[in-house]
Amino acid sequence: MVRRARNIFRWPTALAELILLQSLLVSGSYAADTATADQVAHTKLISVNSDSVVRLGGTDLYLEVTLNGADGGLVHFGYLNGELWASTETLRQIGFVLPANTPDPVRLGGMQGVEVNYEASRQAVTINAPLQILKLDTTVLNAPENNRPRATASPGVLLNYNIYGTGGQNGSSSVSAFTEIRAFNDSGVLSSTALSQATRSAGDHWQNRSVRLDTSWSTSFPDSRLTLRIGDTLTDALSWSRATRIAGVQLGTNFALQPYLITAPLPSFIGSATLPSNVQLYVNGIQQYNGKVPAGPFQLSTIPNISGAGNAQVVLTDTLGRSTTLNFSLYDEHRLLQKGLSDWSAEFGVVRENYGLESFGYSHDPTGSGTWRYGVSNNMTMEAHAEATRGLINAGGGGALLLGSAGGVVSGSLARSDHAGQSGTLYSLGYSWRNDRFNFSGSGIRTTGDYSDVATLYGPPPPSVSAQMAAGYSTKHLGNFSLSYIHLRYPLQDATRYVNANWSKSMGQSASLSLNLNQNLDKAAERSVFLVATFSMERNVTVSSSLQHDSTGTGLVLNASQSPPSEGGLSWRAALRQGDKQNGGQGELDYLGRYGQVQAGVNAVGNTRYGYAGADGALVLMGSDVFAARHINDGFAVISTDGVAKVPVKLENNLIGTTDSRGMLLVSPLNAYQNNQISIDPMDLPADVRIDRVKALATPTDRAGTLVHFGITPIRAASVILHGAEGEPLPLGSQVTINGQSSNGAIIGFDGTVYLDTLDEHNTLIVHMPAGDCRASFDYHNESKTIPAIGPLLCHKDALP
């Protein structure tokens, strides 16, 4: 503690303060060796401006302040009549919120709710104050991070194929093939799909038909979350609008470019801690977060996979061991967008006609459309859609609103169209709510007048009434119950109304039962009942039995199947059917391998008899190498071990395959625009190689491949034993260079041994010793993959020039 007697002259006071601050800067004794230059400068600022404390009289103190458990640095106080005083400016700077008319200076002990503990021996003061009179920064906990790794694509070409053929009675046969050819590099992806079919009826010739499906080029801008697509595409749509297949240009938001971005608003809890505390978050009884929080307000976000209504608890345990439990309810709906987040798409082109029947069937009238969603707040998302073509304009808007913390989500929309002088209206309304046991949802869309959209001009109109309602309840012992209702009506057609009831229950871990009733409300005779029992057995074998009854009769079906493991292998499926004049069965055998999947089977039900076979997979050309693989829908990587064969490769620490004789391996599937960890074990490599890294992050772009090198370099290495002319080992620490290159050198160890890994086929070693240099020559021969020992070699001084 530093005390200075006050006198009536101001200049001695200022001089003494200057000397005191200088001593603090030199020795740091008042900061207990933790004060920084910034803290001292801050103290000087407070002391110079604390005129009210200077006028107070008594004793000046410079104390280490701890405010609600947080370090506040060195602060200037006044000590009078056994109490601490501080200026209003000082208190505001350390975090207090004071009214404008507060008397200056302020007696700390007189502040309501403030606890002051002055320790003269430590030259410190501990202050605990209510958070209502403090202004502290808000600490954000458990905030999701939007990591954006840089994605790459190496030039390549990919062919996906799916071939299926049948052979039936009387020589009838068919073969079909779906293919996708894809070319890609860092500039984008060019893709084209096609369907080819060949059929032959009994006694007829083969009839061939091929049709192009979609051709497009796309490129993406991950930082802007935008994708540009040129060619055949689908227009974007909302729940109350319809998509249209067009050929043209599309530009819009693509959240898949930033897969770590959480688009839905996360339920969060805002609280405060008087002292530094440990905070734990429990949602529905399961711990979701555990961490530290300083004194002051904090915001704690839940995890993004919470859906529906739930109960949350926040447990605060302060530094004194006192625990406080805070309960709150939450509701999460992934249909909503986070506040300020925008999702949009714009398209322009011509409508595709007779898709799947003609390769180049396009309309002549251009059409344009746009869709937009925007998070007005975390509880409200607005949306709009518009489209136009010759003689038609259609536009509307809507949104979704979260009703309170656990009130469910209500949605609605209103759209208007004008076509050839005829107008129409569409309106919709929906509501959904769910928790861990109960769920309810209902929605309906209705059109009036002559409501039309672009799809209406090239196909059926939208339904005049489309409504659905569903409710479900899960119990602990009786199983799960659900009830649903569907109402659908098109213009100039009768309505279709169905109600469906379902019950299901798990019997332990290996069996389940389900009962389903489906009833047509407009035709009482149309009723069906299904009873299904399923048993899961060892080795991925599943056996099920289903009993079906409808207006045509009763049927029994027995199914047994074995699914292949993810690494591949054989699988099979068998089925028997009895009743409803459909007696018979089916058998199928599948093989999932590294290079694709093949299947073959027979079907004999009723009067139908045929056999079938199929195959699907992919061929990839990258880096002048051709790879066969399973069907590839997303990103992939080609791994190179630089010619080293049979190296095991792991994807996320799971063995995915071994490199071929060229040291190459195709790894699929990978998540596009995400970090996929690929690794190799150096213990699986030969001893005579050098490796740059054993782990790599592969981040491919969408539907493209990236090339990953581990930097494996074969080396000529050996342990060379060098002796002098008398046969003694050369001195420890002598410098050895290879072929006169100082960069390729090493130090001799014990017994004259030196390890060299930059050898050539013919090598001359020069050894630099205190007694003089000597030279030794040898040829490198190594038929094994181990590090050979060469020597002892005599190092001759007389061989030097």
From TrEMBL:
GO molecular function, one term: fimbrial usher porin activity
Signal keyword on record: yes
Domain of life: Bacteria
InterPro entries recorded: Fimb_usher, FimD_plug_dom, PapC-like_C, PapC-like_C_sf
Pfam families linked to this entry: PapC_C (PF13953), Usher (PF00577)
GO CC list: cell outer membrane
Leader peptide range in chain numbering: 1-31
One example of a Gene Ontology biological process annotation: pilus assembly
Keyword tags: Signal
Name of the protein described by the UniProt record: Sigma-fimbriae usher protein
Species: Collimonas arenae
